[in-house]
Structures are given as structure tokens and as C-alpha cells.
Amino acid sequence: MQTIKMWFIQYIPGLYIFRMPVGIIDIIEIILLSFLVYTILVWIKNTRAWTLLKGIIFLGFFVALIYLFHMDTLIFIINKGLNIAIIAAIIIFQPELRKALEILGEKMFLVNIFGSGNEKDVEQRCSDKTVNELVRATVEMAKVKTGALIVLEQNETLEEYERTGIDLDALVSSQLLINIFEHNTPLHDGAVIIKGDKIRSATCYLPLSENLSLSKALGTRHRAGVGISEVTDSVTIIVSEETGKISIAQRGRLRHNVQEEELRTCLVALQNKVPVTKKGIPGVGILRKKGKESDEA
């Protein structure tokens, strides 16, 4: 014990690594850098950038060998092409970089400091009647295997995506939703965007998710539902045309085989402005361990 005590007295006031003094600021810097690297790795794990990272690691090993054996010609080529490679990477992966900045901008500590500017009043949330109409329409469409894609706007505006569709500005009703998604009708393609108690637009185009962990069996409808939930805080209800199963997409995650009561619980939680976290809406279990999160369409 005395030996351990003496060790702390000797080394803690000023740690030395490779004979270089390391202070508290250096330790904090190392921790922050480690957290930053870990966060970046987690983020790119399910994107196209993951493949790029593996290529960069291999290329880095190759460059190290070049410098180790002093291959002057290759070193000259690498030095001249480095700036071009960086600019090319920025252009190629512009969508991923934009998404990363959007994620950074929506963090709660930034919202608390600067304000999001998108806060909605309580009256803008959907009513009990709207919840019932949404549940009724979703369940009815699931029974007859009518494909549907319904996006529920939350704090972040969806006007950018509303403009890609046809304006409706109609009160939410189960019959209207069923008619919209009925086969061979003019409005059945694309997504319906709902804000509060109103259907704002139909036939809207949504961004497709490029998440590599999603099952390849999933169709465009499911990928669009996940895609819009990745770039906004919206919640998307999806009905599979092949299986009739209901899915919910939130925060880039997809919950399959959602039952009627679970769907109702989700909508009630949204209606009551329950805070949404990375774990999903409390009491809903979109990411809940209960039940299986299958990859069926």
C-alpha cells in the first residue's frame, strides 16, 4: 500500500510519457479526442463512408511503407495529389458531411443555447380524433395490404418535402387516408405529410436511407420512411404492401410488426409532447427490447 501511495505522490502531479510532461489539460484533450474519434466511427459505420475509411486505412499502410523505404518518386506523387484527394472526398461525400452537420446542429445543448426557432405550441399537436383516425386508417390498410407511407411532423419543419407533393390542407380522416393510398389512384404514390390535425401534402418525395444495416429485402417505401427519420425528428408510419405489416421509423431506426395498441401509444405520446430521446418515445418501445426487430418488409 505504501508503494502505491508513493507512486501516486511521485507521478500524479506531473505524468511523464516518453519523458514529456502531461498535465490535466492534456488528459482532457486526449479524452475529448478519443470521444470525437469514437463518435465519428459510430456515425460512419452504416454509411458509404465506412467503405472509404477501410480504403484509407489500407492506403495509409501503403504510404507508410513508401516513406519507410524512401521511394522518392511515389512520395512526390502522393504530396502533389493529396490536396486534390481531399477536395474530391469532400465533393463525393457531400451528403454525408451535410448530414453530420445537421445532426450536430440539432443536439439538445445547442437548442437550449440558441433556440431551434421551430417550437410548436400545444394546439399544433394532433387531437384525440386525429389519433383515432390515424390508427383506424393504418389498421384498415394493413388488413387489405394497402401500402402506405405517413410522415408525422414534429419540431423540425417538413416544408422542403411538402413542396415535392400536392397540397391538400385537409383534416385528417381515416377514409381520406385510405382513399389516398388506394391502388390506381392519382395520389397513392409517395408519402403523405401530416402536421397537427391536417394532411398538408400527398405524393411527397422523401430521401432514401443509405443505412447499410437495413435488410436488402426492404423496399423503397421502408427506406424512404427511415430516410426522412434520419434527417428530421419526424415519426413515420409505414404499411407494407407485400405483408400488410405496420412499421414505425424514428431517429433512423425501424420497428417492424407494430400492433394496433403500440401504434396508439406512440401517437398519444407524440400528442402529449413527450420528449423524444435516442431511445425513442417513452412508453412506445420503438427501440424497445420487448418484441423482435425483424427485417421483414
Describe the structure.
- This protein is of the alpha+beta class and 297 residues long.
- It folds into two domains: 14-114, no CATH class; 122-271, YojJ-like (1, CATH 3.40.1700.10.
- It has helices at residues 2-11, 24-44, 48-68, 72-92, 94-105, 108-114, 128-143, 159-162, 174-181, 220-231, 260-271, and strands at 15-17, 20-22, 148-152, 166-171, 191-195, 198-204, 235-239, 246-250, 253-255.
- The protein has a seven-stranded mixed β-sheet with strand order 4-6-5-3-7-8-9, sandwiched between helices. Strands 1-2 form a two-stranded antiparallel sheet.
- Strand 5 and strand 6 form a beta hairpin.
- Helix 7 runs antiparallel to helix 11.
- It is elongated.
- It starts with a helix and ends in a 26-residue tail after the last helix.
- Mean pLDDT is 78; it is low at 14-19, 108-113, 115-124, 274-279 and 281-297.
- This is Diadenylate cyclase.
